[in-house]
Design a protein that fits this description.
This protein has helices spanning 15-22, 78-94, 112-129, 146-152, 170-177, 183-187, 189-195, 205-217, 254-261, 306-321, 339-343, 346-359; strands at residues 29-31, 50-57, 60-67, 98-102, 135-139, 142-144, 156-160, 164-166, 200-202, 268-270, 278-285, 288-295, 326-330, 364-368. By secondary structure, it is an alpha/beta fold.
């Protein structure tokens, strides 16, 4: 179907519009648009609060869905869950990426265990798809309970400025803890961008959909397939070593080094605000997608710690699952010492980083910039 759509950069989109912005013009085909809940009586509505479909992103097939908060707060019932499960299973069968726009109040109270069982089925499908096809969640509004757990099971979570995620909302926190917090203070993008729950943020729905298109262009259709090669763009033209100071204690931004190496100087950094002493980003070399892992001397001197080890280990595993070679830029004095780090389990988390690199079968190139 084709929808005449002029994206409103300063407004929230409807679920259908979100899918239309994500997909190439005219490529979106809807599925299960007529299903209805058998538990909602006179309040039932076709689609049961979710829009599912398939489309194309830069000519490549994707499966997608978007929850509709205008119906029962986007809460999940049995028919609603059936549609999401259908989309996920279809992505697995056809081996294509899946993108979900999530905005849900959680399990629908009117449907009781059927709603909770629906979340269990969705969780199981996300786990089955893990490492098989890219899974991306876009949080566009309030998402509570299972509406937060499901995105955390996917490869990447994107949050808009209007998005919030939490297991227990402000009302429960106020009642139990005696703290008065807004939804944004409890679980907005500033919170989850700093704790690793969300990897990417975008100001609006339109920006989020376009960001997902960019991210998909760095990933293959499925595990075991090589990512698409794009036309080569020359790097910026300066020597990368010009950015690196000769003095060991002088700081610099390692992203300036990386941008001199890659096509067009363009990086798509993930988890930018979490563990800022290490940089993880997608880029292209000679038109081929790569993952970049780099110590960041600009923060904590590029030292490694428990949190940065978690961040880098997850990114390395993701790149290995989807066949992206790794470019590692090293400039670190080592691991951060002290009782707080030992108490935080730096040995365990550091071992996970070692494990991720040792397990990775993709090509790995390491460049020591100053010290290692």
């Amino acid at each position: 179907m084709t929808l005449a759509l002029v994206p409103r950069a300063d407004e929230r989109l409807t679920p259908l519009e979100r899918l239309e912005v994500l997909c190439d013009p005219g490529s979106l085909s809807l599925i299960r648009s007529g299903v209805e809940s058998t538990h909602m009586g006179d309040r039932t509505r076709p689609g049961d609060g979710v829009v599912g479909g398939t489309g194309r992103v830069d000519g490549r097939q994707v499966a997608c869905y978007a929850q509709d908060p205008s119906y029962a707060g986007g809460s999940l019932g049995q028919a609603h869950a059936d549609t999401i499960v259908h989309v996920l299973r279809m992505a697995g069968r056809t081996r294509v990426p899946v993108v979900g726009f999530v905005e849900s109040a959680g399990a629908r109270l009117q449907e009781g265990l059927a709603a909770l069982g629906g979340y269990g089925r969705i969780f199981a499908e996300h786990v089955r798809l893990s490492g098989r096809v890219p899974q991306i969640s876009v949080i566009t509004g309030a998402s509570a309970g299972g509406g937060s757990y499901a995105p955390a099971l996917t490869d990447f979570t994107v949050m808009t400025d209007a998005a919030t995620m939490f297991l227990t909302g402000p009302g429960v926190v106020r009642e139990v803890m005696g703290k008065d917090l807004t939804a944004a203070q409890l679980g907005g993008p500033r919170v989850h961008g700093r704790n690793g729950v969300c990897q990417l943020t975008a100001p609006t729905d339109v920006d989020a959909a376009l960001l997902v298109r960019d991210l998909l262009d760095h990933l293959p259709q499925h595990g075991g397939e090589r990512p698409q090669r794009w036309p080569t763009v020359a790097p910026r033209g300066e020597r990368p070593d010009v950015v690196v100071p000769a003095e060991d204690r002088k700081v610099y931004d390692v992203r300036d080094v990386a941008s001199q190496l890659v096509d067009g100087g363009r990086l798509l950094e993930v988890s930018e605000r979490w563990a800022r002493n290490i940089v993880c980003a997608f880029a292209r070399l000679d038109g081929r997608s790569v993952g970049i892992v780099a110590n960041q001397p600009k923060y904590l001197g590029g030292v490694l710690d428990a949190t940065s080890a978690q961040k880098a280990a997850r990114f390395v595993r993701t790149c290995d699952l989807y066949g992206l070679p790794l470019v590692v830029l090293v400039d670190t004095p080592g691991f951060l010492p002290g009782s707080r780090q030992e108490g935080a389990g730096v040995i365990r988390h550091g071992a996970k980083l070692v494990h991720a690199f040792a397990q990775a079968t993709v090509p790995k190139v390491t460049v020591v910039l100053r010290k290692a």
